[in-house]
Amino acid sequence: MTDLGCLLSVLLVPLAAAGLGLIHQGLSRSRSAAHTMLAVMCALGVSAAVFVLFGSVLAGSAGGPARTIAVAGHHWNWLGAAATRYSADAGSQDALRMNRALLLCLEMFAAGLASVISVGAGSDRWRLASTCLASALTAGILFPLFAHWVWGGGWLAQLGTEFNLIGFVDPGGAATIQVLGGLVSLCVAWIAGPRRGKFAEDGLAAAIPGHNMVLVLFGCVLAWVGWVGLEIAASVLVYAATVEQLVWLVINAMLSASAGALAALLVTRTRYRKPDASLCANGWIAGIVAGSASCGLVSPVAALCIGAVAGVLVTYMIESLELRLRIDDPGGSISVHAGAGIWGLIAAGIFAHFSQGTRGEHILAQIVGIAALVGFMLPLTYAGNLMLNRVSPYRVDNDGDWQGMDIRELGAGAYPEFMIHADDFAPR
After folding, report:
1. CA neighbours within 13 Å on the CB side: how many for 365?
2. Domain residue ranges in the chain
C-alpha cells in the first residue's frame, strides 16, 4: 500500500470520533446534547496536543530508543526513550521517516479516540474541565504506555523474543484503543457516580432513554467508516499487512458489525417482544470493536461469529452493569468497548490465521495482554482519574445533571425552541 493510500486511511479516522460523538449525545438527555458534543471535540483536541507534544515520546516506535527494565533475567521494554519523537527520525532513510510520521499521525487520532470513548460513560454529569484533564491523562500517559507495549516494539510485542511465547497481536487497536477507552469509562462512571434519579432507594434502576435515536444510528455508520480507516492504517504501519489482507479486513469489518447489530436485534426481539434501537446500535459498535482485534486475519465465517457473540454479550453486559452493579453508563461505553474488546482479543487467538506458533500459544499471548490491561492499566487509570477528581471534581454540582449540562456549563440549551422536558415537573 502506498504512503498516500495510508495517509488517506488515517484521514478517515476522525469520522470514528464524529460517530461516537453522535452516539454519545443521542443516548444522553436532550438537555446535555450540546455539552456532550463539545466534550467530544475538547477531548479530541486536548488529546491531539498532549500526545504530539508529550505522549508520542513515551509511545516511541519499533526499533527506536527505549527504556528497559531487567527483571528475573528478562529485559522488559517499558517506554520510548527518544528526546523527541522527531529527533529519532534524524538521519533515517526517507521511507522510514515517512512510516514514523504516518504512525505519529495515526496514534494522535487513536489517542483522541481512546479519550472520546469515555465521554459516553460520563454523559449528563461529567464536567467539561474534568473531561479535558482526563483526556490529557489518557493521551499523555495511559495510551502512550500501552501503545508502546503493543505497537512500539514493547514487551507485549516481544513476548516471543524475551519469554519464548508468541507476541501479543492487536492490528486494529482493540486493546490499545477500545479496551483502554472502556477501562477509562469504567473509572469515570465509578468516580462520577450515577445520574440523579437513575437508581431508587430500593436499588431499582429507572429507564432514562436517549433523546435522538436517528443521530445514534447515523453515528454508527460514521464510526464504521472511521474505524475501517484506522484498522487499515494500523495493519499496514505496524504489521505490514498485504493488500489482500486489507480487502478481507474491509469485508470482515462489515460482517462483524452486521452480525453484532443483528444478534442484538434478535436478543431484544426475543426478550422484549420488540427490537431495541439503542441496543442494536451498541451491538453494531460492539461488532466493530470485537472484529478490530483480528481484522483481515480471520475468515468471513469467523468474523460473523465474533460479531454475533459480541452483539449478544453487550446486551447482557449493559443490563448487568446497571441492574447488578449499579453502574450508570448512558452510552454503554464500558460494555461496548471494554467487554466486546476483551472478547475480540480472545477470539483473535482462537480464530486468526498466523504463520508461526500454535493456537494455544496465540491464545496465551492474548490472555497476557488482557491481564496487563486489567491487572496494571485499570488500577493505574483509576488512580490517575481519582487524583484528577481531587483537583477538579468530575461531577457537576447537586442539581446540575437534573437541570442539564447545557444550561449549567454552557449557558444555553441545544434545542432552545423545540425540546420540552417531560420530567421537568417530576418529583426529585
Report:
1. 30
2. 3-69+82-410
Please check whether residue 211 is in contact with residue 29, taking contact to mean a CB–CB distance below 8 angstroms.
yes
Three cell numbers at 289? Answer: 470493536
| Per-residue pLDDT in tens (0 to 9) along the chain, 428 residues | 678 889 999 999 999 999 999 999 999 999 999 999 999 999 999 999 999 999 999 998 877 777 888 776 677 888 887 766 555 444 556 777 788 889 999 999 999 999 999 999 999 999 999 999 999 999 999 999 999 999 988 999 888 776 667 889 999 999 999 999 999 999 999 999 998 888 887 778 888 888 999 999 999 999 999 999 999 999 999 988 889 999 999 999 999 999 999 999 999 999 999 999 999 999 999 999 999 999 989 999 999 999 999 999 999 999 999 988 999 999 999 999 999 999 999 999 999 988 777 888 899 999 999 999 999 999 999 999 999 999 999 999 877 878 889 988 998 888 876 654 545 434 44
Cα gap 396→383, rounded to integer Å: 20
> Hey, is 75 helix, strand or coil?
strand
How many angstroms separate the CA atoms of 48 and 40, rounded? 12
Q: What is the dihedral of CA 154, 155, 157, 161, to 10 degrees?
A: 120
3-state secondary structure 363-405: HHHHHHHHHHHHHHHHHHHHHHHHHHHHHCCCECCCCHHHHCH
Q: Pick the closest to residue 313 from 295, 334, 299, 327 (CA basis).
A: 334
The upper half-sphere exposure of residue 318, i.e. CA atoms within 13 Å in the direction of its Cβ, equals 25
CA atoms within 13 A on the CB side of 165: 20
Domain at 3-69+82-410, CATH class: mainly alpha
Q: Quickly count: other Cβ atoms within 10 Å of residue 378's Cβ.
A: 19
HSE at residue 83, side-chain half, CA atoms within 13 A, is 3
Interatomic CA distance for residues 51 and 141, integer angstroms: 9
Cα 73 from Cα 70, distance rounded (Å)? 6
Question: Where would I find the H helices in 324-358?
Answer: 333, 340-351
CA distances from 186 to 150, 261, 371, 379 (A): 22, 23, 16, 11
CA 404 to chain centre: 26
The candidate with the shortest Cα–Cα distance to 104, out of 63, 54, 56, is 56
Amino acid letter, residue 310: A
